[in-house]
Design brief:
Layout: E1 2-6, H1 11-22, E2 26-31, E3 43-47, H2 53-62, E4 67-70, H3 84-99, E5 103-107, H4 121-129, H5 132-148, E6 153-159, E7 161-163, E8 170-174, E9 185-187, H6 188-199, E10 210-213
Parallel strand pairs: 1-2, 1-4, 2-3, 4-5, 5-6, 6-10, 7-9
Antiparallel strand pairs: 8-10
The chain binds NADP nicotinamide-adenine-dinucleotide phosphate.
NADP nicotinamide-adenine-dinucleotide phosphate (NAP) binds next to helix 1 and strand 7.
Length: 214
């Protein structure tokens, strides 16, 4: 497969790139600072930002991707609260439609949208009174854009709290997190593995899997 990734310079995104290249896929990564990623065979680094549709088009023009992966974090400052990811996903969906790329795997978070009531009371309070609320709002907007498209197959991955560490067994907790655990967590390496698997499979299309480590 050829993959376009937005967010490839991030902690999870860089692990996604490692996994993809390790499985002999090829990758175009759109990044603000190309020096932030080690260039390797199979990896095409494009300088720019998904905030600008023209930069996404430039990336797609290098090689049309089979699948898009997004591992961006909500931007600080420049965008109105909760609007960065939504704006970026609108741009990406529009370029995907232009190039007839019909699959996207989007990294959201457990607690976004209809999974919010499943958070424990501490996390729900954090969403209400800390900047986490704005980030979740942004993910929710992006999820809604994806759910509203009819020509694109989406997978919205909703990981539990991210940790560092090795790739471990991934537990599917439901589409909102129906299997109760007080404070589930998952390593970024495990999330990266799940995202790459989802990119190449039909299993999670149209779904919002909440995942943690087993
Ligand atoms: N922390 C948790 O426990 C948790 C749990 C579940 C889900 N999540 C979600 O997981 C996602 C990925 O997390 P992570 O820790 O891997 O992210 P990260 O390391 O913070 O990486 C963020 C990525 O977003 C890019 N980015 C940020 N602001 C940008 C902007 N204004 N314009 C263009 N690119 C921008 C960064 O690019 P630069 O390198 O250029 O800055 C980087 O590639 C986040 O959306 C987060 O909400 C987090």
């Amino acid at each position: 497969m050829h993959i376009f990734i937005a967010g490839g310079s991030g902690q999870t995104g860089s692990l996604v790139i490692d996994d993809l290249l390790g499985q002999n896929h090829t990758v175009t990564a759109l990044v603000r600072n190309t020096a932030a990623i080690r260039n390797r065979i199979g990896l095409d680094l494009v300088q720019g930002t998904p905030v600008h549709k023209a930069d996404i088009q430039k990336s797609f023009s290098h090689q049309k991707p089979d699948v898009v992966i997004v591992t961006l974090a909500s931007a600080k400052g420049t965008f109105e609260k909760g609007s960065f990811l939504t704006h970026v996903i609108c741009n990406i969906v529009s370029v995907m439609e232009e190039y007839s790329t019909d699959k996207i795997v989007y990294m959201s978070a457990f607690g976004v949208g209809d999974s919010y009531p499943e958070l424990n009371f501490l996390m729900r309070a954090a969403v209400c009174i800390t900047p986490l609320g704005g980030k979740f709002l942004d993910h929710e907007g992006a999820e809604q854009v994806l759910k509203a498209t009819d020509r694109i197959n989406f997978v919205v991955v909703r990981p539990a709290m991210l940790t560092t560490g090795d790739k471990g067994k991934v537990k599917f907790l439901g589409l909102r997190r129906e299997k109760w655990e007080f404070m589930p967590s998952i390593t970024r390496a495990s999330v990266a593995g799940f995202i790459v698997e989802a990119a190449g499979s039909q299993e999670w299309i149209g779904k919002t899997p909440v995942i943690s480590n087993a």
